[in-house]
Amino acid sequence: MIAPVEIAGISTTLPKRAVTNFEIEKLVDTTDEWITKRTGISTRRIASKEETALDMAADVAKKALEQSGVKKEDIGLIVSSTICSEYVTPAMASHVQKAFDIDCAAMDISAGCTGFVYALITAASLMDSLSIDAALVVASEKLSDYTDWEDRSTCVLFGDGAGAVVLKRSDTACMSYPVLGGSPDHEDVLICKREKRQTPFSGAVRVKKEYIHMKGREVFTYAVGAFEHTLKKLLKMCGDKPYTKIIPHQANEKIIDYVMRKTDFGKEQFFMNIKEYANTSSATIPIAMYDAYKEGWLKKGDRLALVGFGAGLTCGGVVIDWTL
Ligand code: ACO
């Protein structure tokens, strides 16, 4: 079951430094024209060594909570989504909890770029089963730490950033039709391994930095299929009250364009901000949702579909009735 909840607060935290395609041109054999044409990306935010994924998570959670008016003592659960935490343990959510100095449940979700959708649905479901009144859902990613800055096929795509929402119990259900899914990644089309460590018993191990590896074409094929399928499934579930706006994972403008052409939705129904921030993995959806709200694209009363897809391979979606 998913509790009747609403999004009561939302915020983003982005690194100060914006890196343009022209700066990437100086690192690898690429051009602004190639990147813009194939992906729609112009700039991305890249964190300094002081701007950690954990700090961005704590900062964005504080801002979202402030905006919601919910007291920190009323938060019963923190769910973070990340693939970039600086700690193996404890969870990123436990770091956020430490920043608030509150007692509550805290856990992380690792579901690639679909992580925020997984975290949102997990939090709302746990709010129901654990009778929790308010929860924080935080996505924070510092992909620049896992990017091979010598690989032109991946380094142009990613950025850093964080987004968070506060979920609060409401009289009516403002989050409906949760859909989570995935397919096995037999071909390792999108992976990033943990670095190997030497132990007294493991024999010689080459300790090397591991980076994101991606087979672009294969990921594209999965992404468009999962995206279209999830949109159609959500539409069917909505029945006579369809969603009219869509915030998809911002992986690549071409993925969104492709799905737009394959469905009856118009361009104006999709929100995109990939041009400015590139792909920040699980943080793209809350970052886009915040921008859509701040720019007035998202209005009180709008019915909205969130759709994620990414490593795993994972996909998921949920329908939100916007109340802010
Ligand atoms: N600049 C210039 N040339 C490049 C670059 C670059 N940055 N990257 C690759 N190329 C070259 C390749 O070397 C290749 O050259 P070749 O023909 O001489 O061998 C040529 O461009 C075509 O390469 P492809 O990989 O086939 O290019 P494609 O048209 O598929 O575009 C892209 C690549 C943009 C990555 C595309 O496959 C894609 O969007 N895939 C989806 C992946 C994605 O969005 N991943 C994000 C993370 S996953 C997620 O969020 C779901």
Shape: globular
N/C terminus separation: 24 Å
Structural class: alpha/beta
> How is the main sheet built?
5 strands, mixed
Number of helices: 10
Radius of gyration: 19 Å
Give a structural overview:
This protein is of the alpha/beta class. It has two domains: 5-173, Thiolase/Chalcone synthase (Peroxisomal Thiolase, Chain A, domain 1, 3-Layer(aba) Sandwich), CATH 3.40.47.10; 177-183 and 213-321, Peroxisomal Thiolase, Chain A, domain 1. Helices cover 32% and strands 24% of the residues. The protein contains ten helices and 13 strands. The strands form four sheets. A five-stranded mixed β-sheet has the order 1-7-6-4-5, sandwiched between helices. The longest helix has 23 residues, at 216-238. It starts with a strand and ends with a strand. The site of acetyl coenzyme *A has 24 residues, from helix 2, helix 6, helix 7 and strand 12.
Care to give the gist of this entry?
The protein is of the alpha/beta class.
Labels describing this entry:
single chain, 324 residues, alpha/beta, Peroxisomal Thiolase, Chain A, domain 1, 2 domains, five-stranded mixed beta sheet, four-stranded mixed beta sheet, 10 helices, 32% helix, binds acetyl coenzyme *A
